[in-house]
Amino acid sequence: MFVNAAITSTAQREFRSTAAAQRLSLDFLHEYVLGNYRDLYAATLALDVNQLNAAMVVTNLLRTAAEASREQRAQEGRLIAARLRTLPPQRVYGVFRDLRRRGINNRRTRAIVRDWVTARPDPAFDAVKYRRSLSVAARHAHLPLPGEVGTVLFDWRRPKRYETPILEAWRRAHYDQRALYELPYTVAEGLAAQHGIDRARFLSGIAPRLTAGERLRLQGNAVRHKVDGVAMDLATAPLTRLASYVLSLPRPERLRRRDELTGALRAAARRAARRQAGTWGQVVAVLDDSYSAAGSGTKRRRPLAVALATHYLLEALAADFTGLWLHHRGDPLLVHPVGATGLGVRILDALERRPDRLVIVSDGWDNAPPGQAAEVLRIWRTRLDPDQHTSIVHLNPVYDADTFDVHRLAAGVATVGVRDAEDAAALVELARFATGSAGFDELRRHLADRVERFLDAQEAVS
Amino acid sequence: MTAVIEGIDLAGLTAGPAQTWGAIRLVPLLRRDPVTDLRLHARLHDPDALSIVQTAPRTAYVSFIPHAFVATWTTDSTPAAAYGTQLRGSTDTEVPEGIRLVFRRRMARREDRQRLRFLPLHLAMEGYLALQFGGPPIAWQEWTRQAVTRGLSPRVEAGYTGAAIAGLDDALRVFEIHPDQCGMVLYVADALTAAFVVPHPDDYRALHPTLLQDFYGDLLFHYAHLYPAVPDFTVRLDDTAVTSVADLRAQLARVDAEWQGFHAVLADGLLAAGRLTVTPVHRMGRFTLARFLPAFDPDTDNHIGEVITDETGQLAYLKTFRLSAAQTRRGHLLSQLAAHDWNLDTTATALRTDRVGLIQRLDRAGFGHLLRPDIIDACRRRARESRGRAAR
């Protein structure tokens, strides 16, 4: 249950609850698990929990270090260090700022900050891109900073010039518009506004310096300003991001670029499936394209994007795949969130094909009529398929703040939270714990195993 | 001209499964064959909106403008509100009958947005009342000049905006509109609040957000606060009868039928029971616009509203407002007065009271200003004296 929440919730506004409700609910859940099952709480760092929750777990573990025993602390330290290495730098700096804000500054915290910062490949780059954050971390953990990096953070008015190229570019960019384009996008954007540079000119200038994520984000912006250089490489984008991007395009454009987009989605799905491709037998998916899949203003069409990505992923995983949308018929690329969530009838359509696996991707609010999907699944389990030839998994991309879990469909069916469709294969493996059929000891063993594997893999890399 | 019918016939519309959110239950009304030759006036449609249901291009059709709709009807682009639901021909280019609005505050900021909205509520409600009750047709000497010439015009009824009803905004926001949905029945704590039907799914989609700006009686405002949640209508399938997938399908069909029955029971107050007095207002093409009044029986639900029906009596447009108990009593008085041509003595006899008693009731109901000041003052003085005598 906690893992479901930690995978799904991002404390952002959802279709049915506000950001404040999500944050409150998630904070409580973290406190509860931390207080009662500290070792399991730490072990979730080895699972695919999302970045927000990983950061929260790290902060909470460091905050309550006094409550842990010596062995627990050693294990937690290794897990935290390993997890921080996998998080993107802005998240980690966010954790450091949070630690400073809360006044958490013990010896272990300082060691963790020090190790992470020294492992960064280019401190000078960090000093430009994450300027405030690095200075906060350095002050908080008393870090010795190499050469000019310390100067640029704390004594930047004095030097006339820097030896390090990126620091020199940063100094010059305050006076010289050309130097701007040697800086990272986020830094250059603010300076460009100060210089009053036209947005279109700035975008075409900065285009070579954009990261993949920034590139994806700026697609619409580039089209509006008629800039060509920002074009995205569809072949490398991750599957769910790509699905989100596809759904952000108007339908006529999707129709026009159908071959290109479908090809990119299929390639991304094959990459995500890796060696497991084609091993799942006959799979039928029921995918929710009701209006609630439109998400919220902050998570636009996220549930629908997860469903679309799952469609292509399962197509790659299965030998024989059928995707059933609730309302949409025809090419899945043109799917559009509309209508009520009548899961019951569609699930029956799917079960009639007698698949090996049935995957349901939905936010779980079955409302046409309410509770019908649960009844269909119950009768299927008890009357029509008592030997469980068909394994049924419900993937839910939306965290329900009121129940501290994702919304369930039926008692006997495993429901797991999902954030990125890429993880779907691993989540289905975790699903047997979600039905309650596996015991608590088994869960502990499974987690210990995952933690071992995670630490081994991480420590082999570093 | 005025006819009395037994409830409103929802033929052609089927009730979909309800979606509940807190105390609000929303029942969608689905129409398999949309009415295509009666549509929302084109100027109310967002030109960028995409059509969900494909129909033949609009060639000749009749359009309608719901009551109290604000849009830039006039040529100088100031906003105006439609006065009473109106029917227009396809070639009709003249400006609809409306009330010009002057906004002193920031309303002007919103003008350019292509958005449908209702008039401020008290204006809308007052318009409704004036439409229903035109005032005395015979200039009996007891009524003031104003009452005879202007009717009930300065009369104000209070209602609550939908935004004030707790949870209605969220309920409407998270409601999942069916692709072929043409209407909605709204319940607050399982009391029938309003019914709303339009001819075509596209029109419904355009008008769905306006349910929040619509106005509702005070009863529902209180219900929404008093009752935190209504139970979901969940069905349990009979698993002993199922041996194959086909059986399961049959069970689902049976549940659908059960739901229809359940909904018919819920909407009983408007649909089946009650004697509605329907007054046709306007006829265009094959459509008739009519306003209806309830029986004003204080013991049952009373809904006023407007309907558009086609030549076979099939419902194309419906909008209702549920009256509160006090409003029902006032309506009862007015309808009795109207039935007796606003003659005080005959009305008093019909209500089994005397002239003074009737004037006192009118005064308490807030209609005192309609009577000449000397009459109402004399009556008030007599009531004061009798109260004083009783106290001694």
Automatic annotation (TrEMBL), chain B:
The UniProt record lists the ARG and Rhodanese-Phosphatase-superfamily-associated domain at: 8-285
Q: Pfam families per the record?
A: ARPP-2
Q: Which domain of life is it from?
A: Bacteria
What name does UniProt use for this protein?
ARG and Rhodanese-Phosphatase-superfamily-associated domain-containing protein
